[in-house]
Design a protein that fits this description.
CATH topology of the largest domain: Thiol Ester Dehydrase, Chain A
Number of strands: 12
Number of domains: 3
Distance between the termini: 14 Å
Number of helices: 9
CATH architecture of the largest domain: Roll
Order of helices and strands: HHHHEHHEEEEHHEEHEEEEE
Shape: globular
Structural class: alpha+beta
Largest sheet: 10 strands, antiparallel
Radius of gyration: 23 Å
CATH class of the largest domain: Alpha Beta
CATH superfamily of the largest domain: Hotdog Thioesterase
Length: 410
């Protein structure tokens, strides 16, 4: 978490500049409802919950359209998947209510939902087959690598524009870079940059499926592609360095030991009788175990995605809202989201699940609060719990916050 705070940076994408033309309000661009209806058409998903099983059965026939190897698919360019989508908060006040929070700014959880839908559509655009309305691929979000914000407040009454394209491709996975801009005085100014990783699977969402290779066309694009490759290697390295598999580094051991010494109660009788058990809280601090919030969500059909599972954007919104509430109750003042990091989608969530969410403040520094939200599903029939996602959110509070202090090794 210390590491996460250090690497927050706000770099405007070169590609966003090279691909985006014109800055003033763009009439005629598709909006978010168009994005969602287009996704349903591409997959052949039914809008009626009861017909959904039938629609999924019909997808089985699309197996014949899958490529046997990646080389059989035509290569694509970054600009082939480039999309611009408008969120007309300024020009269509009737959609504003859904995006509004009590502080009269835009609900960030709603933006997460929109980014998730757009990311999937961008990938379908990259993998589109000529003459074929329906795609044999099931494209799902594997992880949110990073979302960095460069503005604290998102205004609820100015149009928003999303742009994005595929920035790197493996054999079955695609990295998508997206940008969000907001209209002020006739110009769009940047609000956030996001990097998502999507995976392609067969029509029944059971096995990985090949996707079109990506050909960079300029030195800038080469650079973006190379960065995507490095991101992938970093993720592999990070996943193998889990504490359950590897001991902490020397630097980490010193940090842990310092925290431990800081919490020892040395006021006990006599010399040398300091016990491991008697711990005291340093001044202006809070025990980590006292910085938690929990939530429960029943997963209704309304929240399903085109594959009849719970929509990833909905899970992100719910986790974000709990994370925000955790930061708010911890810091005692309004927190602002600065960065979203490393959201892993480990397991899909079925409609009808009980979703348990736990928010935990896991690191603090001056005004910054790092919150980890763990989500798991509970199956009432088998009485089993399964982790589905882990979310990391960085907030900045209006005032300096107390230091969070761990009590146990875990």
């Amino acid at each position: 978490s210390i590491y996460r705070l250090c690497i927050m940076r706000k770099l405007p994408s070169v590609l966003a500049r090279t691909l985006t033309s014109g800055t003033s309000a763009s009439p005629g661009l598709p909006d978010m409802s168009k994005v969602r209806s287009e996704l349903r058409d591409i997959v052949g998903a039914s809008t009626n919950w009861r017909d959904h099983v039938q629609a999924m059965q019909e997808r089985k026939a699309l197996h014949t359209l899958l490529a046997k190897r990646q080389e059989d698919l035509p290569p694509r360019r970054m600009k082939d998947s480039y999309l611009e989508v408008i969120l007309p908060l300024g020009s269509q006040p009737e959609i504003r209510e859904k995006y509004l929070n009590v502080h009269n700014s835009v609900r960030f959880g709603r933006i997460l939902e929109d980014l998730d839908s757009l990311g999937v559509l961008i990938c379908y655009t990259h993998t589109k087959q000529e003459m074929q309305q329906r795609s044999p691929l099931s494209i799902v979000t594997a992880l949110v690598d990073k979302i960095n914000l460069c503005q604290k407040i998102i205004h609820p009454d100015c149009d928003i524009k999303f742009t994005g394209n595929v920035s790197w491709v493996g054999k079955t996975s695609m990295e998508v870079k997206m940008h969000m801009l907001q209209l002020h005085d006739g110009d769009y100014s940047p609000v956030l940059d996001a990097t998502f990783v999507m995976v392609a699977r067969d029509p029944e969402n059971k096995r990985p499926a090949f996707v079109n290779p990506l050909i960079p066309e300029s030195p800038e694009e080469e650079e973006i592609f190379k960065q995507g490759e490095m991101n992938k290697l970093k993720r592999i390295e990070f996943s193998t360095a889990s504490l359950l598999k590897m001991a902490p580094t020397a630097e980490e051991r010193n940090i842990v030991h310092d925290i431990f010494l800081n919490t020892l109660d040395t006021r006990q009788e006599g010399e040398g009788t300091v016990s491991f058990r008697s711990r005291k809280l340093p001044p202006n601090s809070v025990w980590m175990e006292d910085a938690k919030l929990k939530g429960l969500q029943i997963c209704h059909p309304e929240e399903r995605n085109i594959f009849n599972r719970i929509f990833g954007g909905f899970l992100m919104r719910k986790a974000f809202e709990l994370g925000w509430a955790t930061a708010c109750s911890y810091g005692g003042s309004r927190p602002f989201i600065v960065s979203v990091d490393d959201i892993m989608f480990q397991k899909p969530v079925e409609v009808g699940s009980l979703l348990l969410l736990s928010g935990q403040v896991c690191y603090t520094e001056k005004k910054y609060i790092q919150v980890r939200v763990h989500s798991e599903v509970y199956n009432a029939n088998t009485r089993e719990h399964h982790t589905t996602n882990i979310f990391h959110f960085t907030f900045v509070s209006e005032n300096e916050v107390p230091q969070v202090v761990p009590k146990t090794y875990g």
